[in-house]
Amino acid sequence: MFINNQFLGIEWHAWKVIGWAGNAVFFSRFVVQWLATEKRKRVVIPVSFWWLSLLGSLVLLVYGLFYLRDSVVIFAYAFTWIPYIRNIVIHYRNKAAQKQCGACHTNAMPHAEFCYKCGARLEPIPPAEISVR
Ligand SMILES: [Zn+2]
């Protein structure tokens, strides 16, 4: 399999493993998003997409900074963590604020009055528990 220290035409060493691991993690987000969309038959971006984006881009940023030292690669991943982290924060804040339907246990948006799944009236959140962020 290894011929002249090469596998698949690539000369392998620790940095190549790190770079390809970053590539694999970053690429896997597309698979995760596509499968989630196919499952629900509507466009869906699961939170795992943002986690994989964050992890993959940070690994590729490290690869660009410390191995390649290439401004194109460094710039490509230098700022992408900002929207990834913001989307993760918004996701968990929204999830924490969701109501749960007493009839079917489906989660509903914080300001929903009725369950979108079974139609049951949802209990209003007491004003003291609603915080503005
Ligand atoms: Zn319900």
Mean pLDDT: 92
**Major β-sheet profile:** 2 strands, antiparallel
First-last Cα distance? 56 Å
Q: Going across the biggest sheet, name each strand in turn.
A: 1-2
- The fraction of residues assigned to DSSP E strands is 5-15%
* Tally of domains: 2
Spell out which ligands are present: zinc ion
* Stretches with pLDDT under 50, minimum 5 residues: none
Counted by DSSP, the helix tally is: 4
Secondary-structure-based class equals mainly alpha
Please bin the fraction of helical residues.
55-70%
Query: What is the β-strand count?
Result: 4
Give me the Rg, rounded: 21 Å
Order of helix and strand elements from N to C terminus? EEHHHHEE
What's the shape? elongated
Question: Could you please describe the fold and organization of this structure?
Answer:
This protein has 133 residues and is mainly alpha-helical. It folds into two domains: 11-97, no CATH class; 99-133. It is 56% helix and 6% strand. It contains four helices and four strands. The protein has helices spanning 14-40, 47-68, 71-78, 81-97, and strands at residues 6-7, 10-11, 99-100, 107-108. The strands form two sheets. A two-stranded antiparallel ribbon has the order 1-2. Strands 3-4 form a two-stranded antiparallel ribbon. β1 and β2 form a beta hairpin. α2 packs antiparallel against α3 and α2 (47-68) runs antiparallel to α4 (81-97). It is elongated. The relative contact order is 0.09. The mean pLDDT is 92. The chain binds zinc ion (ZN). Residues 101, 103-104, 106, 115, 117-118, 120 line the site of zinc ion.
